[in-house]
Design a protein that fits this description.
54% strand; Porin; alpha+beta; 12 strands; 2 domains
């Protein structure tokens, strides 16, 4: 009987798994309380990355014993965000690459009154058009503006500019650009000026609220002066393009370009403050400076122009 009882007990013990095996086969308990985990899941599902990051940070601080688990949750969440962002960017590039030529254009039309100081001081009419098309690798920028002022029945300002600037993306922020530009300003000493150029540009700052681009390169200029002389020159060109979205309805921008030529040169700069009115309509207050070295005798080399205009975006 004793032998049979021992044999029976041994059989029962053999049928029970070892304690270590039981623990290994049981899922490890989470160190994050159920309520906290539910809050984390809700924040992540909400789609607001700032809120989700804040909730994860609070959970890590409130439960340091679960820091490793919170880190793992955050790592998986951020990996998913990166994967989704890459997928969206790839899809956007595919759509841009297959879009017809006349699609994906956006821009604005500007019109208003102006007041100039310098060579002239009077009121006039100003109009401008700018358009941009962003492609998978190429971006095209078109600009045109005209400023005509009359005083006592006489034209005192007649300034026209039109330009085309294609950009080719070399890297995330580096790009190569070309430039074709036409200018007319008889009161600064030239009837026509044609410019062809190119070079490299770089986005120094590229955030949602602030952008800053610097660009530069060589240029060829052909100028028909009011004296009847036509002169071709080689020049170096540098430009700056800055924009700061102060609030969702208020933006400050600064653009400028400088051409350095042998014995000559020109520069222009524009500072503008845009405020949103209704829908696609904005108001702009701007101050422009135009400098021309080597103007005819008696002509001020600096013209300034203050403007109040309305802008319609499309």
């Amino acid at each position: 009987m004793l032998i049979e009882a021992c044999a029976c007990s041994f059989a029962l013990l053999s049928a029970v798994p070892a304690t270590a095996d039981v623990l290994a086969s049981t899922p490890a308990a989470s160190a994050i309380p159920e309520g906290v985990r539910a809050m984390i899941d809700k924040a992540i599902a909400g789609g607001d990355t700032k809120v989700a990051a804040a909730v994860l940070a609070l959970a890590r601080e409130a439960h340091p014993e679960a820091a490793g688990e919170v880190d793992a949750i955050e790592a998986a969440w951020r990996a998913g965000l990166a994967e989704e962002k890459a997928r969206r960017e790839q899809e956007a590039r595919r759509r841009l690459a297959s879009a017809p030529l006349f699609d994906n254009w956006k821009g604005q039309v500007e019109f208003g009154a102006s007041r100039s100081t310098g060579n002239t001081s009077n009121l006039g009419i100003y109009g401008a058009l700018s358009a941009e098309r962003e492609g998978a690798e190429w971006t095209h920028k078109l600009k045109a503006r005209a400023d005509i002022q009359r005083s006592n029945g006489m034209t005192t300002t007649q300034r026209v500019l039109a330009s085309w600037q294609p950009h080719y993306s070399v890297g995330d922020r580096l790009y190569a650009y070309g430039l074709g530009q036409y200018e007319h300003d008889r009161f600064l000493g030239y009837e026509n000026r044609y410019t062809l150029g190119g070079g490299l540009g770089y986005g120094i700052i590229a955030s949602d609220d602030v952008t800053l681009d610097l660009a530069g390169g060589p240029a060829f200029r052909l100028t028909d002066f009011t004296t009847g002389k036509t002169e071709p020159t080689l020049a170096g060109r540098a430009s700056l393009d800055f924009a700061w979205k102060i609030t969702p309805t208020l933006q400050l921008s600064q653009t400028g370009s400088f051409f350095l030529e042998r014995g000559d040169g020109s520069a222009s700069a524009s500072t503008a403050l845009d405020t949103k009115l209704i829908g696609a309509l904005k108001a702009r207050f701007s101050y422009n400076v135009q400098y021309e070295r080597g103007t005819p005798p008696g002509v001020d080399p600096v013209d300034t122009l203050s403007r109040a205009t309305l802008i319609y975006s499309f």
